[in-house]
């Protein structure tokens, strides 16, 4: 591992970075026990054993001042209604508990403790920035975490985690690989934080793989209300050294999390003198909803390069998910088929359903699910991801490839390349690109 480092953090602005909860109130086990506390439940009875309903949990933040993903638990409840209307999974009804983690480490731990108390067999399709708070209770109870959003490093290191995508690391590394062929000078605008310090490493791993010079690095406050100065500096960096950049247009990569839209508002106002400069970003910083809200084809995202985990929302492979939404959640404005959180939840429940089915008529428990997933079960997601397969380290040597950079649980390092054309996200190229080797180029010097 000489010359390389383990990517250590969550790639979030400072005010979003998780902190481990050092103390929990005595009432933690009762958190999220009612709808008033922010939790809901698809009616059912307890447990995963016997012939009763199978109980799982899905959590995500809602009604906070930071990132909100209400569509994930809302879709999980819709999925339960849909699967139960079809007779359940292998003849057993599905009960979905939901919890609001409030973008808070203590609340995330409370949700996990409730999952333990309720004897759920898995946490499925969830979003939380506080892996160091929620994983310890889950690990203590042996409860698998299937298909988290990929926003924390813990999701790629915990032995009980079964991620369905490659998280933020693959998106940024893949973006650099794409921009190496498409752009002249590349400028990264990122938070001036410890977490932000990791972003150039990932982007440059892709750029240098493509024989491109490293990106210029523009640091910015992660809580600013406007970014005119950073926009001007980034535009200048992206158009300088024309001889080195050749005839290719420059590209600016804002990687400011929830503040990316704020940056783009400022960028729109100062880019008039630089019409050839394009923008690029990772999915999660922008989606079709944000593109529409910012003006569509006349907005600042037009022409932007985007890396994602999955095919574009218009792809026919999402039709099965859309049928569930239309049948059980039509009119629920929390659920957007273009939202990566909703898409991840669909894939996570697909994995969960296949794992339960693999058990036949046997007991469905946290232990039996882990055994199935760790035993080499191959799961197709209908082409939305490559075939997913988790095994123990001693039987799957390829895990060592990603363990080098600290991702031993990552089994899907594939990304898709998209572009905004006429206000719509469309595929820039067919199929997936594997960025495993690109991540291994994340050198430190």
TrEMBL record:
This is ABC transporter substrate-binding protein. SUPFAM superfamilies: Periplasmic binding protein-like I. Residues 1-37 form the signal peptide. Residues 80-139 form the Rhodanese domain. Keywords: Signal. InterPro entries: Leu-bd (IPR028081), Peripla_BP_I (IPR028082), Rhodanese-like_dom (IPR001763). Pfam families: Peripla_BP_6 (PF13458). Belongs to the leucine-binding protein family. It comes from the Bacteria.
